[in-house]
Amino acid sequence: MARRTLKPENLMEQVAHPENYRTALEAVKRNQGAPEIDGRKTTELEEHLQKNWEKIRAKLLGGTYIPSPLRRVEIPKPNEGKFPTSLLVFHRRPSW
Fold first, then answer.
1. Where are the beta strands (DSSP E) in the chain?
2. Interior CA angle at 23 toward 94 and 95, to 5°?
3. What pLDDT, in 10s, does the model give residues 47-94?
4. Nearest C-alpha neighbor of 87 from the set 16, 20, 38
5. How far apart are CA 13 and CA 10, in angstroms?
6. Which of 9, 45, 75, 94 has the smallest number of Cβ neighbours within 10 A?
């Protein structure tokens, strides 16, 4: 799939475009994304997005979406030490 160029004048509309969510989800599946912090698997994320995408999209476009805080983790390096990074917690509220 060709990568789209985002234009600043309508950035949020482009971010919230269904093609972007599908592309991101396919990348997570292709990379065999690990379960989320709450233990839910990628397959459950897919189901959640299918059921709730329009509500999520409306909140993104309306400026009312509030992301969860990032979770700080350290990933072990192959040689030694750890690589610090942050994980996004996909927010699941019943109000969606």
1. 71-76, 82-87
2. 10
3. 888 888 889 889 988 989 877 777 788 888 888 888 888 776 655 444
4. 38
5. 6
6. 94
CA 31, chain centre distance (Å): 14
Per-residue tokens: 55: 């509500």
pTM reported for the whole predicted model:
0.59
**Is 73 a member of any domain?**
no
What residues make up the domain containing 63? 9-67
Number of separate domains in the chain: 1
Domain-located, residue 4: no
- The whole-angstrom separation of Cα 9 and Cα 72 is 32
The tokens for 5 are: 């160029």
The answer to the question of residue 34 being in a domain is yes
